[in-house]
Design goal:
The structure holds 2 protein chains of 2 kinds. Helices cover 78% and strands 0% of the residues of chain A. By secondary structure, chain A is an all-alpha fold. The radius of gyration of chain A is 18 Å and the shape is globular. Chain B is mainly alpha-helical. Chain B contains 5 helices and no strands. The chains are: A mainly alpha, B mainly alpha. At the A-B interface, helix 1, helix 2, helix 3, helix 4 and helix 5 of A face helix 1, helix 2, helix 3, helix 4 and helix 5 of B.
Chain lengths: 171, 119
């Protein structure tokens, strides 16, 4: 795999990641698994799980994908390409955003982005819980984790641990 | 603003402190996640370990779903917002359209709705 292709793709994803990494997970899965076949659906899910289990930002999953695709250079290239464009854009936009804090356009943009981001994050969850053919056991684990998050104040790490235990018992 | 979770923190927050914390978090996390994945690659032939990791992945997916539901609660009484959420979900998760198409179109439609006070 061409490192340039990896860099360009993750740089594009970085600029699309309105609402954070969860909102681009469906696109990442579509491209890496379905279009390019760089990873199998199970590999992608396992990379996601290891990325979730590690401390640090969620964006670290990109380094695992880069590593699977092109070794250690791929890990650095993918992570750098995912971080740099968004950081530069944030640096550039932060001042501009402050300057227009009383503008009705800014309020409209904020209101407009919310439902789009929610739709993307929801899609990310469903796509990740369906790595290949639909599997009721994965949906059950995902549903219980979602329910646990909504009705309890448990630390998400406990929910991930419970998911691991259920995985061992059900899968 | 685009932001894959925290790489914008050093520029969006207090630069010196946010930057240092973020660098530690990211470099430490990067080393840790690669080490964990290396160990996992060596041990992934163990069926039980694979099942545990897949279970963790499914729970992580559930956390995304829970986050989306939590974020959607304040919008529950706004039909236009629910339509936009549902449309984004259908195009991205079901029809598997690219985000490159869905995101700009979705934001344009949502902006139109927001300017008319539907959101």
């Amino acid at each position: 795999v061409n490192l340039l292709e990896l860099a360009l793709y993750f740089a594009l994803l970085s600029l699309l990641s309105v609402g954070g990494l969860p909102s681009v997970m469906p696109e990442m899965q579509r491209y890496v698994v379905e279009l390019k076949g760089w990873l199998t659906p199970a590999d992608f899910m396992q990379a996601f799980a290891v990325g979730q289990a590690a401390p640090g930002p969620n964006v670290l999953i990109t380094s695992l994908i880069g590593w699977k695709v092109a070794g250690l250079p791929g890990a650095f290239v993918a992570l750098g390409a995912m971080c740099l464009p968004a950081a530069v854009l944030a640096w550039w936009v932060a001042d501009l955003w402050d300057r227009f804090k009383d503008s009705p356009w800014r309020r409209a943009v904020q209101r407009a982005i919310a439902p789009v981001v929610i739709g993307m994050i929801l899609s990310g969850g469903v796509v990740l819980a369906t790595p290949g053919a639909p599997d009721w056991r994965l949906w059950l684990i995902a549903g219980l984790a979602a329910g646990g998050m909504l009705v309890t104040k448990l630390n998400p790490l406990w929910l991930l641990t419970a998911g691991g235990v259920l995985g061992a018992l059900l899968l | 603003m685009t932001d894959p979770m925290s790489e914008a923190a050093p520029v969006a927050g207090p630069q010196r402190v946010g930057g240092a914390v973020w660098r530690c978090e990211c470099v430490g996390g990067f080393v840790w996640v690669l080490a964990l994945f290396m160990v996992y690659n060596d041990l992934s032939s163990y069926e039980t370990l694979r099942e545990i990791v897949i279970g963790v992945g499914a729970a992580g997916a559930g956390l995304f779903i829970g986050t989306a539901i939590k974020l959607a609660r304040p919008l529950a009484k706004k039909p236009a917002a629910l339509v936009i959420i549902a449309a984004c979900f259908l195009f991205v998760a079901v029809a598997r359209y690219s985000l490159v198409i869905v995101l700009p179109v979705g934001i344009a439609i949502a902006l139109f709705a927001a300017l008319r006070d539907w959101l």
